[in-house]
Design brief:
Layout (H helix, E strand, L loop, with lengths): L1 E4 L5 H13 L4 E6 L2 E6 L9 H4 L4 E5 L6 H5 L5 E4 L9 E4 L6 E5 L6 H14 L3 E3 L17 H14 L3 E4 L6 H5 L4 E4 L7 H10 L3 E4 L6 H13 L5 E5 L17 H8 L4 E3 L1 H5 L2 H13 L4 E5 L17 H18 L7 E2 L16 H9 L1
Helix pairs in contact: 4-5, 4-12, 7-8, 11-12
Bound molecules: phosphoenolpyruvate and manganese (II) ion.
The site of phosphoenolpyruvate (PEP) has 9 residues, from loops.
């Protein structure tokens, strides 16, 4: 950090600034440049607030040379292992990030019934998804809309995971529910409305489960990385960032998909970045083209809303695609990855991560492998 001093400061006042820093235990050096005096802080002041320095008499401004999210920015090429451990069945692990084949997480907006979630789980797996997504606790803009099946929905998700071997990503809305949801979820989703819920971020960090952190609908890139920092600071490095569209003056679509966030986030942190073209656009016809673009610009995965009868979805029906369209998205993804030489690994691994799937479910992502072989 650099402290800019008032231009007219005499040398006694400059010394007083250095003395005050010394009292605070901070190693600092005065440097003159272009006729101005600045103080370079040599100690690590990452955890010190700026006002600690700007309140010192004679200091005009405190300028940080590195971003305040020191943990997020120091992580390099992170890859995260995802296993269906909550259901206690799958032996497979999928890898996300760091040059692996992009991971497809797909499923309905909400868990609607035991039969629906199982049917969709089987369909998305056949179409090439490696993780099943669905909300049991739903954050809805209107309190009169379907709020999710809650704990009952988590039980249905667990059963679908047992039957298919697919790991589960599902949303947690409040800090007091983190432990409950983590009993069922292999990835804890923190949604756009909760990106600023710092107690929730901390609690999810403490649990040590992978966290899918969605960008706040009006959040800057720095704010998203600060939110990730809350999870990382609890000792949990398994954070997946998700670009899901932001609010702009454009009103034709639900949101504006900020794809520049993908390479930008990757230049600022080594955490995996996925894209959700479903919530970003709100229209099923937009999902496939934007999924293609997301993969082409380097996304480590896709989060997609898929329903076996999209127009009958209880929530977000307009943006749900059917399993056939998901298969096309996966096919596109593999073509793009191969054409651009993006994914080094297959995205999933044969390594044993638990007991063998009792039902002998085929490996998630098998269809991705088959596709990549046939292209
Ligand atoms: C979701 O993915 O289920 C969801 C509610 O998304 P978002 O938080 O991005 O609106
Ligand atoms: Mn939704």
């Amino acid at each position: 950090m650099i402290l800019i001093l008032k231009p007219e400061l005499d040398s006694e006042s400059e010394d007083r600034v250095l003395d005050r820093l010394h009292e605070l235990g901070i190693n600092a050096q005065l440097v003159r440049t272009s006729g101005r005096a600045v103080v370079v802080l040599k100690s690590d002041v990452t955890e010190e607030p700026n006002h600690r320095f700007t309140q010192i008499e004679g200091v005009v401004k405190a300028v940080r040379l590195s971003p305040g999210y020191s943990l997020a920015s120091s992580i390099k090429n992170k890859s995260i292992s995802i296993v269906a451990s909550a259901a206690g069945y799958s032996k497979k692990q999928s890898l996300i990030g760091s040059g692996h084949m992009p991971l497809v997480m797909a499923g309905p907006c909400s868990v609607e019934s035991a039969e629906q979630i199982l049917e969709v789980a089987v369909a998305v797996k056949d179409a090439g998804a490696s993780v099943l997504r669905a909300g049991a606790f739903k954050p809805r803009t209107s309190p009169y809309e379907f709020q999710g099946l809650k704990e009952e929905g988590l039980e249905y998700l667990k059963e679908a995971s047992k039957q298919t071997g697919l790991p589960i990503v599902t949303e947690v809305l409040s800090p007091d529910k983190v432990e409950t949801v983590a009993e069922f979820a292999d990835i804890l989703q923190i949604g756009t409305r909760n990106m600023y819920n710092y107690e929730l971020l901390r609690e999810a960090g403490r649990l040590g489960r992978p966290v899918l952190l969605k960008r706040g609908m009006s959040a800057t890139i720095d704010e998203l990385l600060y939110a990730a920092e809350y999870v990382l600071k609890e000792g949990n490095e398994q954070v997946i960032l998700c670009e899901r569209g932001i609010r702009t003056f454009e009103s034709r679509l639900r949101n504006t998909l900020d794809l520049s966030a993908v390479p930008l986030l990757k230049s600022l942190s080594g955490l995996p970045v996925v894209v959700d073209p479903s919530h970003a656009t709100g229209l099923r016809a937009m999902v496939r083209p934007m999924a293609r673009a997301a993969i082409a610009c380097g996304a480590d995965g896709l989060l997609l809303e898929v329903h076996d009868r999209p127009e009958q979805s209880i929530s977000d029906a307009e943006q749900a695609i059917d399993p056939g369209e998901l298969a096309s998205v996966v096919k596109d993804m593999v073509s793009i990855v191969l054409a651009l030489g993006l994914g080094a690994g297959s995205g999933d691994s044969e390594e044993s991560a638990g007991e063998e799937d009792a039902l002998g479910a085929v490996a998630p992502c098998a269809s991705v492998r088959t596709l990549s072989e046939s292209i």
